[in-house]
Design brief:
The chain has about 90 residues and is mainly alpha-helical. The chain has one domain. It contains three helices and two strands, in the order αβαβα. Strands 1-2 form a two-stranded parallel sheet. β1, α2 and β2 form a beta-alpha-beta unit. The radius of gyration is 13 Å and the shape is globular.
């Protein structure tokens, strides 16, 4: 279902997600890594955080067995992501 959204809907819209990875990619990764129940909970929490008042940024899926992601990337990592077009401007 997420792949269909990415292929048929998201691909035709301008990039608007304030986060990296995008919310749909985050949902795919969280479901694959944590299973349906926890993956869905993480995905819903991410969608609730993705709003006009959010600063956005890098928000990786937490490792298996954890609820929070690893620490925020350094300034040099952010610059590298910007150079690759993966960091919102």
């Amino acid at each position: 279902m997420i792949s269909a959204y990415q292929k048929h809907i998201s691909a035709k819209m301008p990039r608007r997600c304030k986060y990296y990875p995008t919310c749909s990619a985050y949902a795919q990764q969280s479901l694959a890594r944590h299973g349906v129940i926890k993956g869905l909970m993480l995905s819903v929490w991410r969608l609730l955080r993705c709003n006009p008042y959010s600063a956005g940024g890098v928000d990786e899926v937490p490792p298996k067995g954890r609820w929070k992601p690893d620490p925020f990337p350094s300034y040099s990592e952010i610059q590298q992501l910007r150079a690759e077009g993966k960091w919102p401007n």
